[in-house]
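Blinded run. Sample ID left blank on purpose so nobody reads anything into the name before looking at the predicted structure. Input follows.
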Amino acid sequence: AHHQAQLHRLSTSRQGRAILQILGHPTEHLPPIPPPPPPWDGVPRIEVRPIPRNMDPDRNKTR
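Blinded prediction complete.
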């Protein structure tokens, strides 16, 4: 079980597949490795409206 887990882990990266080839394991039948998502996809987006200028409650009583 441990050996199979290591083979699976190594088959999920280009470097791991190179190690498998060095060790004599076939890697031609494995599916292609998908490109990693961009790092900004994991960052949550929030929209913040700017704070209005000249909003002093003592100077602008009408606002």
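Unblinding after everyone has recorded impressions. The mean pLDDT is 86.
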